[in-house]
Inverse folding.
């Protein structure tokens, strides 16, 4: 083949490239869908206080490939930190306070990384209320509530079926006015409204520390950021009014010693001895930031 | 350096078949074959690969040391483009030696099928490439083939947390250069298996060990339409290798050892080919 002809062939073959580009581009720009083709239109937006979001990712095999997943998920607005587990096949996002993540955006990010998103479970923080046989998780910091239901009981039917052990645990927590964190999969109810499966039920614990030396908005923000990044801390808020910081953690009590170290790193403290840590109850849960 | 006539330029051209359109591996793809892996959408990768090749026999020793630099870009999650720029650091053919830029290559890879399950990814991709005559074909020995050549490939793989399985076929369609030389077309088939001895988590160094079988069959070169006797033939290589990665960095290497050859006429025979590469994505 002459050189001129071969160059023409090369140009012609490259001209075919827009075909995969067009097909792939259009699929990326249309309404995100699960890999099995099911529509995500029925998914509700994640509302209220979302502490964590765990995505089951199919095809997640190697660390080098997982870097693309890290890049795509960290770009989402509201992602505070990310933990990828190859052995579990999951990516867990910590969500910035006050931010919401859309399931469609999460699915798109996973697909653009070259994987298939399977299930998205969320950890929602709120208080419990019991209405007859139904138990609801009322959102903290937002309107709305989730009907809690055991997974695999036909959750979307609106009955809110719970096994007796879970019901007992939730009733006990509701009676104490506890703030809880429920991990499960959100779904739309056939009867209208939102449901959440009760895969994991955890109590939210808080500790309030006196922190001498906290000055000004900047100092307060810096201390909050340092505390939020401490291991196990879910939420931290500083009150300049009384020089106190309230730290919440999910499932276990915040470690006073570890928090005291963080305060010291911030050039503040020392933290004086206080009463024992307590779970977040009716009098302390849901407090707004005080400055 | 004297420019020798006769069969030497043809042998040099045959040697160029081993380079130029080498489809350098991406991520955990085979080193010498091709795999279906592509970089994520919007991702950019840079790979630098040092390749050393030696052949001897028929009264001659051939040696090539080439530094390949590749830039890849993820147009979509399933479609990637690669620009490969080789720099020949040392090319020796008997008493002749040369160095300089080689033939530039452009490749497109389209992953047209993927099946993801927990801990497993099955995929298949088509590859198309073109090698442009940018290397100096008048150097002694030549740094480029002087021809525009095409590559077509098909790759399939199953990747899991512990095991990797790859298979691919490739066809190189060579064209005639200005001196009337057409290198023989080449058909290749590769199979590879890999194992991750220790299942690591994301932010840990990760090691995968691989073994490839690479088979090539080349038709005879043609000079002005007439076949060249001492060219073409079949070769089979056994190629152990490794991938060591950490987050977005990868170091990989492999050695290609000839285990079978049926070459036409009298030609230098491959002694070995070795590759060491560093790749990063961002």
């Amino acid at each position: 083949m002459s050189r001129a002809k071969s160059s023409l062939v090369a140009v012609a073959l490259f001209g075919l490239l827009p075909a995969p580009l067009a097909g792939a581009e259009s699929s990326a720009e249309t309404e995100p869908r699960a890999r099995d083709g099911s529509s995500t239109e029925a998914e509700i937006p994640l509302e209220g206080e979302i502490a964590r979001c765990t995505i089951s990712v199919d095809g997640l095999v190697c660390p080098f490939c997982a870097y693309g997943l890290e890049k795509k998920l960290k770009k989402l607005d509201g992602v505070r930190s990310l933990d990828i587990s190859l052995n579990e096949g999951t990516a867990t996002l910590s969500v910035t306070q006050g931010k919401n993540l859309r399931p469609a955006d999460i699915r798109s990010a996973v697909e653009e990384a070259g994987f298939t998103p399977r299930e998205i479970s969320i950890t929602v923080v709120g208080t419990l209320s019991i209405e007859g046989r139904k138990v609801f998780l009322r959102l903290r910091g937002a309107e709305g509530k989730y009907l809690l239901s055991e997974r695999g009981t036909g959750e979307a039917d609106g009955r809110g079926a719970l096994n007796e052990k879970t019901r007992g645990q939730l009733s006990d927590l509701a009676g104490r006015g506890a703030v809880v964190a429920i991990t499960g999969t959100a779904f739309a109810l056939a009867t209208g409204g939102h449901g959440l499966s009760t895969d994991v039920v955890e109590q939210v614990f808080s500790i309030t520390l006196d922190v001498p030396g906290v000055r000004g908005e900047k100092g307060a923000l810096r201390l909050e950021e340092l505390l939020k990044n401490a291991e196990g801390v879910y939420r931290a808020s500083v009150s300049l009014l009384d020089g106190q910081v309230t730290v919440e953690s999910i499932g276990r009590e915040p470690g006073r010693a570890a928090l005291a170290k963080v305060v010291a790193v911030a050039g503040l403290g020392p933290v004086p001895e206080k009463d024992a840590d307590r779970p977040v109850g009716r009098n302390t849960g849901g407090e707004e930031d005080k400055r | 350096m004297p420019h020798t006539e006769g069969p030497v330029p043809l042998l040099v051209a045959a040697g160029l078949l081993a380079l130029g359109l080498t489809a350098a591996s991406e991520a955990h793809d085979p080193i010498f074959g091709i795999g279906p892996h592509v970089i994520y959408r919007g991702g950019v990768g840079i790979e630098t690969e040092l390749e050393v090749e030696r052949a001897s026999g028929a009264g001659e020793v051939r040696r090539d040391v080439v530094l390949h630099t590749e830039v890849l870009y993820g147009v979509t999650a399933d479609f990637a483009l690669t620009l490969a720029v080789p720099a020949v650091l040392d090319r020796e053919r008997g008493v002749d030696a040369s160095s300089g830029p080689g033939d530039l290559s452009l490749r497109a890879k389209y992953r047209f099928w993927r099946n993801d399950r927990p801990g497993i990814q099955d995929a298949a991709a088509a590859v198309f490439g073109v090698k442009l005559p940018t290397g100096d074909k008048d150097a002694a020995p030549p740094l480029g083939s002087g021809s525009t050549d095409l590559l077509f490939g098909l790759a399939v793989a199953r990747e899991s947390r512990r095991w990797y399985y790859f298979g691919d076929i490739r066809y190189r369609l060579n064209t005639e250069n200005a001196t009337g030389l057409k290198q023989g077309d080449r058909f290749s088939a590769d199979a590879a298996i890999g194992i991750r001895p220790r299942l690591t988590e994301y932010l840990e160094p990760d090691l995968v060990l691989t073994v490839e079988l690479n088979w090539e069959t080349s038709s005879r070169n043609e000079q002005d339409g007439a076949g060249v006797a001492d060219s073409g033939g079949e070769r089979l290589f056994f190629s152990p290798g490794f991938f060591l990665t950490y987050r977005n960095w990868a170091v990989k290497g492999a050695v290609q050892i000839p285990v079978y050859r049926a070459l036409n006429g009298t030609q230098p025979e491959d002694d070995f080919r070795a590759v060491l590469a560093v790749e990063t994505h961002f």
Q: What stands out?
A: Confidence is low (pLDDT under 50) at residues 1-44, 282-291 of chain A.
